[in-house]
Amino acid sequence: MGLHPLPDVELYWSTDPFYHNSVISAVMTCRRFKKITENLHLSDRARELQRTQVGYDRLGKIRQIMDILNKSFKDNCIESQTQSIDESMVKFKGRSSMKQYMPKKPIKRGYKVWARCDSETGYLHQFNVYSGRCETNEDGDGGLGFKVIMELCRTVQVDTLIAFDNFFTSLPLMEMLHQRKIYAVVCKVTLCATPCFDNFHK
């Protein structure tokens, strides 16, 4: 399905030969596929905290798999000394309190994901999903940009150069990165930050 995307999942089992995919439909029926996806969970529902309980995590249902992925990304790469942090959008048009609207982005509605990537290879080292203003407490302790950068730089090696745009930038952030011996440069487009790195080294 990832290699052959269709606008509606039921079309893989369609009687119309234009949409029908015999490889997928031969594995299981459409009804069975829907039942599996409806009941597939990535966390232990018995241990999930309720919304009214202290410590409730909006991302609790996928937190464990996110931690596993981030650990796997870290364990299976050799980090370069030039990296970039920026936001990305995952398209989603359903109902969710975490859905964001970004009118200037190619994907205007969906989940906002913070990502730290390698500037040389594009490899994703670490990511985190933005769960909303109330949960992140953006107004305190340096603001949202400070929290995002420091969270994504927890495992960054010393003498690494991190590029990000002015949305994240603040004096407390720059001072904290300097204390940790992490270089920082502000770029207008961090995903295309290679020229900034070249100028830095020159």
TrEMBL record:
InterPro entries: PGBD. Residues 1-185 form the PiggyBac transposable element-derived protein domain. Pfam families: DDE_Tnp_1_7. This is PiggyBac transposable element-derived protein domain-containing protein. It comes from Euphydryas editha.
